[in-house]
Amino acid sequence: MADLRDWLREVEKREELKTIEGAGWDLDIGFLTAYYWKQWRDAPNLLFDKIPGYPPGFRVMSNVIMTPKHFARAFGLSEKASDKEMMAAVRQRMPEWEAKAKDFAPRVVKSGPVMENVVSGDAVDLERFPSPKWHELDGGRYLGTGCAVITQDPDTGEVNLGCYRNMVLDKKTVGLEVAPGKHGRLHYEKYHARGKPCPVAISIGHHPLYFALAGVEFPLPEYLLYGAITGKPAEVIQEEVTGLPIPADSEMVIVGWCPPGQVRPEGPFGEYTGYYASKGKREPFVVVERVYYRNNPIILGAPPGRPPNGFSYLHALMRSLVLESDLRKSGIPDIVGVWTHDSPGYLFITISIKQRYAGHAKQVGLAARHLVRTGLGARYIVVVDDDIDVTSISDVLWALTTRSDPEKHIDILRRVRSTSLDPMIRKPAESFHNSTAIIEACRPYEWMSEFPEAVEFSPGIEKKMMAKWGKVLP
Prior knowledge:
Layout lengths: L3 H10 L3 E5 L6 H10 L7 E5 L9 E4 L5 H7 L8 H18 L6 E2 L8 E4 L21 E3 L3 E5 L6 E4 L3 E5 L2 E3 L7 H11 L4 E8 L2 H7 L7 H9 L4 E4 L6 E3 L4 E7 L5 E3 L14 E3 L1 E9 L4 E3 L9 H20 L5 E5 L6 E8 L6 H12 L5 E9 L7 H10 L3 H4 E8 L15 E9 L17 H11 L5
Parallel strand pairs: 1-2, 3-18, 4-12, 20-21, 21-23
Antiparallel strand pairs: 2-3, 5-17, 6-9, 7-8, 7-11, 9-10, 10-17, 11-14, 12-13, 14-17, 15-16, 19-20, 22-23
Helix pairs in contact: 4-8, 6-7
């Protein structure tokens, strides 16, 4: 059973952990987390202890799974792989994970480390835990940022894990900010339509793979995918109050009910777009009935912020592989690569193809816009040839500026879905729409054979030169 403490021991052994003592919850932890983002490809995991006003051992951990090598480690991939190689490795394993997932249903156990402390009813006090105020203009303290919010579809029984932020509203209540269309929101809306409160469990600290899977719209249930990736079923406890399955090895789980027809002020919060775009608003909330936590619990923090940073990299990689998988399943031929860069969400997507027919590039761009699983996404979709490295923004800009004519190769889709996090929508707004530019940055199919040749070495010459000089090259 792998948990956050196993991860902590591993990064400490590899000298990839920095422990900071004495940082306060009010901006200190948030500032130091953001400071190390600037080195994000080599940033250490951060562990904050001896937080003023809290017992030693009540800790906060941040910058977890925010570098390429940590992503690779969590998913069992080579830590030396480039972004392109990482995508290729995941692409190869994804069908295997999907095929195996049904064989890795969570294993229900009677107890686990999360049961070391159980607090119920009037004794619940969320302010006993060092929830940080992550950003300067945040509307409050956030217990859940690297969290996994667990809900269940009342019709199908399917369990979902989603990463939705949780602002501490008072000792027994946390906000539940979930964008339209997300599984967690669909679940509580189904309960509320029946006049019933929705059961909710929120895991606050867990193995980073849970956070990675909860943060992206995978087509498979997260518990099953976790088992397929790790090769071991997730161990869960059937929680007594809500009946929801919670990770047995979580650092902390809070459980309760999201009541119908009730909202409370929530936010603002510095979001992954790099803006406080949604400002403060009124959102549903969870009335907490019970708290489970380990001795010396660790809050897993993953606050977003202005990209590029480790948070945006994690989402770029995860969302790229999901979109690529969906495009390949659509039946459109010769999808070579997909990358969402380090822009927030899916706002800038590049897709490389091996052109097979006239209209191929536009077909791919339109399909990608349809398949994007999040509301705020696909501001720009750029389709390029297969000689372009989609993970290289320089390559993409070269193709964009030399293989596209703005008059002929840009199509704009209007009034497509967006969310309140969109900084280009003036607030307040009654509905949320944006537009998408689909840019064909491929050699024109009709005269592709006449297009000027690129200045580069052929694969044969490159192979010959590498054999001759590879030993002295960096």
